[in-house]
Amino acid sequence: MNALLWRMAVCALAMILFAPPASAQKIKPNLYGNSEGRLFLKKDAPRDARDLTGVLTLRQVAAHILLHNPDLQAFQLEIRAREARALQEGLMPNPQVQAVVQDVLGSGRFSGASDSENQVLFTQWIELGGKRTKRETAANLNTELAEWDYETARMNVLTDTAKAYVDVLARQEALKLVRELEALSERLHTAVTERVKAGKVPPIDEVKAAVTLSTTRMQRQQAENELYAARRRLAALWGRSLAAFDLVEGNLYGIQSLPELDELEARLKRNPDLARWATEMIHRDAVIDLEESRSVPDLQLGVGARRVQESRDNTVMFQIQLPIQLFDRNQGAIAEAHYRKSKVEAQKRAAEIRLQTVLSNHHARLMNAHTQVTSLKNQVLPGAKMAFDAVQEGYRFGKFGYLEVIDSQRTWFEARKQYLNALGEYHSAVADVERLIGAPLNQKLGGAVATVEDSQR
């Protein structure tokens, strides 16, 4: 084949090939201001995978968990995968080259290649109806849905973090309380033993004091085991099976004023579970547009060169191919896309009702916990402490028996334990409500994180 034939082929190839659009060459910037995507994987930035040690704050723990939580890493990879898919959907179809040699290796004068006909044909599919743009738009919206899924997972992880942190904080306080009770039981056992030796009380009181001391030691061991388990649950959120930190600090006793349910319902739209549905509806519309565009047939253009060896002539070839949309006009896929949009509309309405119900339940739980904490702090604890101090003082002077001492001691410490449990339930309810409204419960105070981290007064 002579040089003219190849020059014609190269010119034809240059006429058909088009560079991909610039939008297909980069990944769309997203919500966090990073031009290459908001998520950093291991290859993008170094990670500190060391265990948290020392005394921890809630903000420190939350920041560490956002970097190292295994569930969030899975969502990050899903976003990257969808960004890559969007990049792929924006690419043009590849051109094709076809080379044909005919009238060779036959019989007679066609036994050789002197009378052969040679041709080179370059073809390119031209997508009509804006398919590529609409396909890329749908893929980008699908990436945004993955980002909303990540935001939902992030809120869930932060909520679990706050609740697990408060659990550790409450169990630290519970262990302090039990140790205080154990020390008091030891002093009481010593005092009773001395009074028995002095003949002031019967020996049975010493036996009762010993039983009480053994019970408090068992309670202390149980509190230590519960704290150990709570610490492991917290460490598991950043992917560690054992807790290497010393303790957590925060203001477990801090509470804040509660907004009304109507105010919280007005802020419910910030919930990512609801906010994502706006993107979902746009995505469904984009899918409908894409499926409708596929009812338009694509055009295949071809250009090439032909060489006739017998006459030593060169010719140019042109090809046009257009499918006839006679039977398959993509009508089934178009109907499916419309049905799926209707399904999304129904799911959105169901999600709104469901979240309003859940918010109402958590708000009632929060109000009950707040009332219980306030009542215990202002009414129950002062009275129990006063009775405990009076009986302790009276026992030294023989005004009360051992049973009265044990009863007042039990009442005082049970009230304090109930107070700790109510505080834990309160902070847990705050975390659940803030998860639903997607923002701090009290904007001025900064929400549960600020409340827990506020220094104790």
What is the CA-based Rg, rounded? 38 Å
Low-confidence stretches: 1-48
- Total beta-strand segments: 6
Strand order of the largest sheet: 2-3-5-6
C-alpha geometry: elongated
Share of helix, binned: 55-70%
Structural class comes to alpha+beta
| Proportion of beta-strand residues | 5-15%
Q: Spell the H/E element sequence.
A: HEHHEEHHEHHEEHHH
Mean pLDDT: 82
Largest sheet: 4 strands, antiparallel
The N- and C-terminal alpha carbons lie at a distance of: 94 Å
Descriptors:
457 residues, alpha+beta, four-stranded antiparallel beta sheet, 6 strands, disordered N terminus
Task: Write a structural description.
- The chain is an alpha+beta fold.
- The chain is built from 10 helices and 6 strands; from the N terminus they run H-E-H-H-E-E-H-H-E-H-H-E-E-H-H-H.
- The protein has helices at residues 3-16, 58-68, 70-89, 131-197, 204-236, 261-266, 272-293, 331-396, 402-437, 447-453, and strands spanning 55-56, 96-102, 117-126, 247-248, 299-308, 313-321.
- The strands form 2 sheets. Strands 2-3-5-6 form a 4-stranded antiparallel β-sheet, covered by helices on one side.
- The radius of gyration is 38 Å and the shape is elongated.
- The protein starts with a helix and ends with a helix.
